[in-house]
Amino acid sequence: MSITLGRMATTRPADAAGQTDCVLDGAAGAFGMSAAIAIVFNTLLAWVKDAYDPLNSFMAALTGHHWRTHGIVDVIVFVGLGLLFMQRHFQADGMKLAKLMTAAVVAGGGGLALWFLLV
Prior knowledge:
By secondary structure, the chain is mainly alpha-helical. It is built from four helices and three strands, in the order ββαααβα.
């Protein structure tokens, strides 16, 4: 089976078992990896700013509320890393990237849930 998404994906030749892999490049690969990193960063930032009051106060002073600043920083991290990965012609196996993103969402969501239950 071959999956092609415009110019964002290519397929590798079939292996001995007849399986082909989808290689994501361009924006798909770059921003997919960026999303996985930004999800984990979001969780870490929430932990740090809630544990360190001066950072929370500083973030609140920047935009009027710490969660607003938090969201802006998350978007900057996501877009910045995505553009950086695109410049470096990042490529990723589609299935591995999907598994990485799933793991990031589970870890990030679980980490936030556990943090807010304990704090």
